[in-house]
Amino acid sequence: MEHGSLTDLKNATFSLMDEDHTLANSVRFMLNKDPRVEFCGYSIPHPSENKVNIRVQTTGDAAKDVLKDSLQDLILMCQHVRFTFDHSVSDFKLSPSYQEMNTDT
After folding, report:
1. What is the rounded distance in angstroms from the CA atom of residue 70 to the CA atom of residue 39?
2. 30, 32, 38, 42: CA torsion to nearest 10
3. pTM as predicted
4. How many CA atoms lie within 13 A of 36 on its CB side?
5. 3-state helix, strand, coil in the chain (%, to 5)
6. Which residue ranges does the record assign to the DNA-directed RNA polymerase RBP11-like dimerisation domain (predicted)?
7. What is the pLDDT along the chain (105 residues), one digit of tens a residue?
8. Which CATH number fits domain 2-101: 3.40.605.10, 3.30.750.24, 3.30.1360.10, 3.40.640.10?
9. Which of 2, 43, 58, 96 is deepest in the core (most CB within 10 A)?
């Protein structure tokens, strides 16, 4: 859900339901890397509520578009981490060290 002005598209607050610090901090990190972002931050209104508010203020682009781009970048980063991890596990399983650990003696 987006809370913001219909006339000022560069500033908005987005409410994400059923989320917590894990996603919010990751999104904040990605937004802070974007040069179009003047300010971003998040808050959790109440500890017992699974809701996160993310505030985005941009230099001119629509806040909604900048948030979407940051979420896409976060997806790509997660895919890269997953691929790198899986590749490293495969390499380790083929290594002599791993083979020695799994031989029956």
Report:
1. 14
2. 80
3. 0.82
4. 17
5. 50, 25, 30
6. 12-82
7. 667 666 789 999 999 999 999 999 999 999 999 999 999 999 999 988 889 999 999 999 999 999 999 999 999 999 999 999 999 999 999 998 888 888 755
8. 3.30.1360.10
9. 58
